[in-house]
Specification:
This protein is α/β, with parallel strands linked by helices. Helix content is 28%, strand content 28%. The chain is built from five helices and nine strands, in the order ββαβαβαβαβαβββ. It has helices at 41-55, 73-80, 93-106, 118-124, 143-154; strands at residues 13-17, 27-31, 63-66, 85-89, 111-114, 130-135, 155-165, 177-184, 189-195. It has a seven-stranded mixed beta sheet with strand order 5-4-3-6-7-9-8, with helices on both faces. A two-stranded antiparallel sheet has the order 1-2. Strand 6 (130-135), helix 5 (143-154) and strand 7 (155-165) form a beta-alpha-beta unit. Helix 4 packs parallel to helix 5 (143-154). The model is unreliable at 1-10 (pLDDT under 50).
Length: 198
C-alpha cells in the first residue's frame, strides 16, 4: 500500500506461505495491490483438509483452475499437493508476471499463468473440464453472479467449486450447485460446492 512517504513507483511486497504438500512452508513474494486479498493460512488449511478427505493424497489426475489468482495462494497450494495441472488467471499483468516468477521459483511445471480477465478465461476454457475451480474474486464487485454460469460449463460432472466471499450468497446465485462444506471467519465466508445432478 502507498503511504504519503512512499514513492508512487515503489512496489510494496508481502508474502504467502504454502501450507502443505511438496512445497510445504515455502514462502513466496506477493505484490500488494488494491483488492488483492490472499486467502488466509487458516482458511486454506481448512479447505485443503476438506479436499484431501474427498480425494485422498493422489491429485495427479486433477485439473485445477484458480480463476482470480491474485497472490496464487490457492493455485500454488493445489500444485504443491500434486495436482496434474493448474491454471492461474490474473488480469493485472504485473501481478501475473509475479505469479510466473513464483511458478518458476517452485519449478511447478504443471502450472500455467494466463494474464487475462477471469470472465474471458472462463468463456474460452469451457471445453476443458476442471475437477476444481477456485472462485475468490475481489469483494464488492458482484463478480460471482457473472462467473457462476460460466463455471458450470467448465466443471467436470463430479468436480468441485470453492467460493470465498464477503457475505453469504443468496440461493439464486447458487442455483445448480449443492453445498458440500462451508465455514466462515470474521472476514469471509467460504464453501465447497458440487454441480447439482441434472
Amino acid at each position: 500500500m502507498k503511504s504519503a512517504h512512499t514513492p508512487a513507483t515503489r512496489k510494496t511486497v508481502g508474502e504467502i506461505r504454502i501450507i502443505g504438500g511438496t512445497h510445504r512452508s515455502r514462502r513466496l513474494p506477493v505484490l500488494l495491490a488494491e483488492g488483492l486479498r490472499p486467502s488466509s493460512d487458516r482458511v486454506r488449511e481448512t479447505v485443503f483438509n476438506w479436499l484431501q478427505h474427498l480425494w485422498g493424497n493422489d491429485w495427479s489426475d486433477k485439473h485445477v483452475l484458480d480463476a482470480f489468482a491474485g497472490s496464487g495462494a490457492l493455485g500454488f497450494e493445489a500444485a504443491s499437493r500434486g495436482a496434474g495441472s493448474v491454471i492461474l488467471v490474473e488480469k493485472n499483468k504485473t501481478i501475473a508476471a509475479q505469479l510466473t516468477a513464483n511458478r518458476d521459483k517452485l519449478a511447478a511445471t504443471q502450472c500455467r499463468v494466463l494474464a487475462q480477465d477471469a470472465l474471458a478465461a472462463l468463456a474460452t476454457l469451457g471445453h476443458q473440464k476442471m475437477d476444481l475451480i477456485f472462485l475468490d474474486p475481489p469483494f464488492k464487485q458482484n463478480l460471482l453472479k457473472a462467473c457462476l454460469p460460466l463455471v458450470l460449463t467448465s466443471l467436470a460432472s463430479d468436480g468441485y467449486v470453492y467460493i470465498e466471499s464477503e457475505a453469504a450468497l443468496d440461493d439464486a446465485c447458487l442455483e445448480n450447485l449443492v453445498m458440500v462444506r462451508e465455514g466462515k471467519t470474521a472476514q469471509v465466508r467460504f464453501g465447497l460446492y458440487q454441480k447439482a445432478a441434472e
